[in-house]
């Protein structure tokens, strides 16, 4: 509908929600925040998307699922001064590839460890959790080499890939501590935490830290 704001179904403590929020905050994009702390927003989400995974963006008759696609959609329909996907298709491919890295090899194993802890003890999957922790180690090692001499994940400046990296590295370190030897990863995580868009998302998530089932570390 003309004149209505894009509506984001999200939760302030959720990593994928923060990924989309960073993109919105980078460009000061006006939107309506349907926080999933509100049961009514949860009902609306269930009607929009039976998987009930979030974030979900609703805008001008479109329902957009998947945080990466939400950011792609915002770039197309609500562009701002910060381009999160480079106009050059070859540079854009690099950004998208790194975005996949952060989703698949950082967030997926990080979620596995956390979700396993929420299960009843008898139903936990120790082998799967070991595999997830090994994947996180491999991802940290690869990222440490990748980030050598870089400021942001891809060459052209802050991008979609960094929107993903920010919350995923944030929670990955809480879940499976990043070895201090991976200095490039630590420095990158600190740069992301200092970025105002992500610092804002972290602050908005602060009241919900008790939701984290592995215990909240006294930092960040
Ligand atoms: N592939 C989805 C993943 C989204 C996702 O896993 N979101 C979590 C919150 S961080 C969620 O919806 N959790 C609720 C659930 O699993 O039911 C994306 O890229 O947006």
From TrEMBL:
Record key words, sorted: Transferase
Molecular function GO labels: transferase activity
Annotated InterPro entries: Glutathione-S-Trfase_C-like, Glutathione-S-Trfase_C_sf, Glutathione_S-Trfase, Glutathione_S-Trfase_N, Thioredoxin-like_sf
Domain GST N-terminal: 4-82
Domain of life: Bacteria
Protein name as it appears in the record: Glutathione S-transferase
Pfam families xref list: GST_C_2, GST_N_3
Gene3D superfamilies found in the cross-reference section: 1.20.1050.10, Glutaredoxin
Domain GST C-terminal: from-to ranges: 88-211
